[in-house]
Fold ArsR family transcriptional regulator.
Amino acid sequence: MRFLSRKTGRDGGSAGETGRSGVDTTPVPLYQAKAEFFRMLGHPVRIRVLELLQAGPMPVRDLLAAIEIEPSSLSQQLAVLRRSGIVTATRGGSTVVYALAGGDVGDLMRAARRILTELLAGRQDLLAELTDTPAADTRTTETPAPATAARA
């Protein structure tokens, strides 16, 4: 994973050892690795791909149909997820099938949905989308908390 080492600056200078790829091999603090991980998740298309893959492996053509974006845009976002190690890709003939690399990713997506449901209790428009959008959340049957006055 790319979260475990520092990138060097433009001048190539760094406090740690630099390998052939120009990446500083000095380990980063855990909090920084977590920040880079969450930054990698910080794109709506990547989140949607991860939500869809919770139901199981999907060919790129099905992801394209579900997300409705340009193939080049989807390819770019899938490459980011693949490089990070959060998804895997297998080729069968001309078909490329993507899958979550582990079950923890699905758990993370379900946890994010629960947290957002709680945080958005006062935002009925977004809350309705969270509770009405079919996601592969088949293991959770929680209902959102009753709406309260909007939080400051």
In short: Strands lie at 5-7, 23-27, 58-59, 87-92, 95-100. The CA atoms of residues 49 and 63 lie 7 Å apart.
